[in-house]
């Protein structure tokens, strides 16, 4: 059985192994609630089951309104509450397949792996990860320190799009622009203003190229 975790309108495919949830930007699912701990909960997925356990959070976790104590098996329709945020468990389509690809590294050999569901078009660790980094930076006492990590994440996503490893959809492009704008505004010295403009320019060009590629030629008159 395959599952998705739906959080704030975004579906995250659950992969075999461990899925982490918390405020840490390195969590699989980054939650924005201030009541969540950096490492709040862990889920483990096998061929037989999906199990959740609290990771020693300060405010605890509830499943279907009941406090989570120890490990608990999850199934489609369950709701997990972390602080004031809700994560819904959904069944994934049987035909859904996840492909892991590695885009060409821009500067080093440790390029970020981008996951993309080829059947459903669900993006998992790219735009969502960048957005999680941005939210963590906003909540940080020193957002400038984390701004560089946000920039690296956004640039990695755009590089993957430019390399043709994933499409530049309108929704994803708008989210990336919003992430860049919020991050640039959080840095008081204005050093990221030029980068914000570059993000907008690169995404605009990608959208234009993609629109041209998908535009159908006019029918040939008979």
> Any idea how many domains?
2
Tell me the series of helices and strands, N- to C-terminal. EEEEEEEEEEEEEHHHH
> Which class of the largest domain in CATH terms?
Mainly Beta
Overall average pLDDT: 78
**DSSP helical segment count:** 4
What class would the helix/strand composition place it in? alpha+beta
Helical percent range? Answer: 25-40%
Number of strands: 13
The Cα radius of gyration reads 19 Å
For the largest beta-sheet, the strand count, sense and barrel status come to:
6 strands, antiparallel
How does CATH name the architecture of the largest domain? Sandwich
Note poorly predicted spans.
95-124
CATH topology of the largest domain: Tumour Suppressor Smad4
Shape: flat
Distance between the termini: 52 Å
Strand content: 15-25%
Q: Order of strands across the biggest sheet?
A: 2-1-11-10-7-8
Task: Note down, in words, how this protein is organized.
The chain has helices spanning 127-139, 143-162, 170-186, 193-214, and strands at residues 3-7, 10-13, 17-22, 29-30, 41-45, 50-54, 61-63, 66-67, 71-74, 79-82, 85-91, 98-101, 114-117. The protein is an alpha+beta fold. The protein has 2 domains: 3-91, Tumour Suppressor Smad4 (Sandwich); 127-215. It has a 6-stranded antiparallel beta sheet with strand order 2-1-11-10-7-8, with no helix packed on it. A 5-stranded mixed beta sheet has the order 4-3-5-6-9. The longest helix has 22 residues, at 193-214. It is flat and about 60 Å long. Residues 95-124 have low confidence and may be disordered.
């Amino acid at each position: 059985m395959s599952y998705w975790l739906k959080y704030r309108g975004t579906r995250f495919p659950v992969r075999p192994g461990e899925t982490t949830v918390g405020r840490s930007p390195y969590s699989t699912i980054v939650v924005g609630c201030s009541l969540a701990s950096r490492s709040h909960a862990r889920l483990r997925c096998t061929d037989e089951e999906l199990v959740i356990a609290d990771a020693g959070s300060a405010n605890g976790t509830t499943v279907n309104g009941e406090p989570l104590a120890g490990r608990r098996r999850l199934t489609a329709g369950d709701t997990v509450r972390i602080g004031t945020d809700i994560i819904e468990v959904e069944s994934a389509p049987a035909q859904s397949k996840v492909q892991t690809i590695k885009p060409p590294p821009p500067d080093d050999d440790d390029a970020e792996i981008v996951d993309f569901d080829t059947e459903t078009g669900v993006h998992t660790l790219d735009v969502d990860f960048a957005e999680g980094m941005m939210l963590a930076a906003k909540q940080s006492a020193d957002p400038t320190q984390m701004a560089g990590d946000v920039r690296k994440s956004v640039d990695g996503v755009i590089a993957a799009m430019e390399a043709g490893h994933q499409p530049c959809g309108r929704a994803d492009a708008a989210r990336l622009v919003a992430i860049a704008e919020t991050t640039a505004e959080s840095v008081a010295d204005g050093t990221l203003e030029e980068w914000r403009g570059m993000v907008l320019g690169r995404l605009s060009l990608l959208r234009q190229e993609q629109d041209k590629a998908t535009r159908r030629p006019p029918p040939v008159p008979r």
